[in-house]
Write a structure and sequence with these properties.
The chain has a single domain, classed as Substrate Binding Domain Of Dnak, Chain:A, Domain 2 (Up-down Bundle), CATH 1.20.1270. Helix content is 70%, strand content 0%. The chain is built from four helices and no strands. The longest helix is centred in the N-terminal third of the chain and has 21 residues. The radius of gyration is 13 Å and the shape is globular.
Length: 91
Amino acid sequence: MQKDETVQLHIFLFQLRTRLEDMVENNNSQAFLSYDKLDITPHQVHKSKKEHNLAIFELSKGIADLLQENDISVFKGIYGGLERMCNRFRK
């Protein structure tokens, strides 16, 4: 995936996060804590592709966490897998 495509995916996931936070009943504010700590927004195109990839995985993990907290059990396994991917990109 090219960097511009990575940034576009980051933008999409960021928008999805916003929508889901508005929609779900049990809005776990802790779900996106690790993403927010990164301090990388989709519009910071000067950030490296690796940083955007990490942000994508952190956002995806937060989305899965938010959905699992709302009894959407299929996302429990996805959350664990995304956590492992985040750890790979942190290295």
